[in-house]
Amino acid sequence: MAAPTPTGNCVLLVDDNPELITLYIDAIPRISPFRVITAEDGAIGLERFYTTDPQPVCVVIDVRMPEMDGYQLVRALRGDPSSANTPLVILTAMAQERERFIGLASGADQYLTKPVTPTELVAAIQRALTLSAEERQRRLQELAETEEDPS
Amino acid sequence: MMQSLPSVATDTSWAKQNVLQNRLRLSRIIAPTIAAIGCLYFLAFNALLLLVPDARQATLFIVDGMILLTIVLLVAATLAAQRNAANLAAGLIVGAVGLTITALEISFAVAGVLDPLAFTGLGAFLVVIVLAGVLGEWTLVIAATVLSNLFTMGILLLVGNLSTEPGEHQRIISELVLLVPQSFLQQWLAAGILIAVSRMFLSTLQRLSDTQLAVERARKVDELKDQFITNVNHELRNPIMALIGYVDLLKVTARDTTVQERETFIAKAVRAGNSVRNLLDSILDVRRVDQGAANFTPAAVCVRAVFDEAIQLIDPRDGRVKERELHIDIPDDLAIWGDPVRLQQILTNLIDNAVKYSPESTPIEVKARLISEDAAAGKSRRQHKPAFTPLIEITVRDYGLGIPPSDIPLLFQRFIRLPRDLASKVIGNGLGLYLCRILTESMDGHIWVTSTGIGGQGSIFTLQLPASQQPQ
Q1: pLDDT per residue as tens digits for the range A103-138
Q2: Quick check: B245 and A20 CB within 8 A?
Q3: Within 13 Å of residue B456, how many CA atoms lie on the same side as its CB?
Q4: Which of A14, B8, B39, B78 could form a disulfide with A45 if both were Cys (CB 3.0 to 4.6 A apart)?
Q5: Spatial distance between the Cα atoms of B124 and B33, rounded to a whole number of angstroms
């Protein structure tokens, strides 16, 4: 079940719902090799990401949060070179195609609609991890090009 | 921010207001214009008089006086129109124009022009009546018509008496018999038409206003429905995810967990399930209230009686309200004008919140009082009612953590729970206060909260509802 992980095996989960935070803490370490750290909003998530050593190998982000929302957090992480390559998984309660497009276009690697089981979540984290750095860069490049030319 | 739906009752005077505004606008234009013309005429008239000396100067001075009076009345009318006194301005203008016409007729008569052509000047009274119809209400039209009748009579009699030759006198009297009824008929016909037209216009405006309101309401309902669906979808997914998450966890780790761990997971799943149920119940409540907000028959409702019932209905899971220190100050004779079930729901919600969100050792105070007319005017900045409606004010005070002032505007919206409370053990679905607000507003009341946000000082929820005006 272990995917190739750079250093450490810590996953950061950012979600404002305390029931779900408890679920992540209970479930993920039991069904995967990952350890879990959590944050209840984007600003705290950013802080925890940078202050944790070794750095989390993946960040799971809920879209709707007070203070800094999920998309803003994704952009913040992508904007910083130390996190530009970190696999990111977006979690949202909105199931529209448009949201899917925005979710992917913002720079996240995987997009999930709540509710997802812990099993499905772990699978998505794995998929995000296996995306190579080169491919991620290519995707982000495409994204930047589409933004410049919105046709 | 949620907006409540526009209610039909508030806008029935829109049509009348619209008509009044139009009349004012016309008055503001007409009065100064005619006054200016009057001044010019006055100057010209007197200049001509100086050039043409005449034996009957006395009568001419009377005419002069009438024209001056006319000008004064029109200036007064302009001022009245500036001060939005539409009816006064209309009356002054009509009176002034009537005077002018009378003055003109007299000056014709005095100048010795007695041929039938002069009598066509009587048609000018129709102008007076039309002005009355355009600028004022039907009462002014009737008054103008009656006065026109009188002046017509007066002028004709005056003219009749002025003629010096007996034969002429006879001829004029016989003409009078024809002229008087004819003038009266013309004048009353004009009055009738004006009143009928103005009524038709008013009723059309009224229907337009009702239609506009209905369209606006339908649009808002559509918006609310959309928002509702979006919110429900969004709000349900989190607790459901917790529920199936724990079930999935139990399934996948069946062999690797201790009995105790499994029991914890099951308990958490159950808790999530209850959240969902709670949410569903409240959502249906909200939907029912949103749809039927105006549909109840208001009646006198005794506040104390409803309060006693509300206490009984507090969910014991949220805290033993009976074991809390309750300071109740509600006179038995206070009654609101509304619906008992709604008031009970509001009170249950407010007291429930007070019990949930404050420590068990702190008291909860519930007070009610009648606010009389004078106090109401200065009381609350949220007060949009005219100052003369007596209100019942109910306050629920707790000594818990209070509410950060920056969060207060959010509090009465749907699904809002403060971040602090989401993290706490308190179960809530963010709909209680929203419901309170919708129910309060459906009874024409207001609800708000004051809190410093400082722990221990708690919050005061204030509810104001129209007082019942019926004797108890």
Answers
A1: 566 677 888 888 899 999 999 998 888 876 777 777
A2: yes
A3: 0
A4: A14
A5: 18
Beta B459-466 vs A88-92: how paired, if at all? unpaired
Query: Given an 8 Å threshold on Cβ–Cβ distance, is B253 in contact with A66?
Result: no
CB of B38 closer than 8 Å to CB of B63: no
B-side interface with A, Cβ within 8 Å?
233-234, 237-246, 248-249, 252-253, 256-257, 264-265, 268, 271-272, 275, 419, 422-423
Q: In what order do the strands lie in the sheet with A35-39?
A: A35-39, A10-14, A58-62, A88-92, A110-113
For chain A, helix (H) and strand (E) counts, in that order, are 6, 5
Sign of the torsion angle spanned by Cα atoms B172, B176, B182, B188: positive
Token pair of B35 as six digits: 């006054």
Can you tell me the distance from the alpha carbon of B194 to that of B202, in angstroms, rounded to the nearest whole number? 12
Whole-model pTM: value is 0.53
| CA–CA separation, A43 and A76 (whole Å) | 10
State the pairing for strand pair B299-302/B326-329. unpaired
Strand residues in B343-470 grouped as ranges (E): 364-371, 391-398, 446-451, 459-466
Of B234, B243, B245, the CB nearest to A27: B245
How far is residue B70 CA from its own chain's centroid? 38
The model's pLDDT over B373-406, given as tens digits with 9 standing for 90+, comes to: 655 444 444 444 444 678 899 999 999 888 888 8
**Alpha carbons B288 and B286: distance in angstroms, whole number:** 5
- Packing angle of the helix pair B124-135, B138-162 (nearest 10 deg): 160
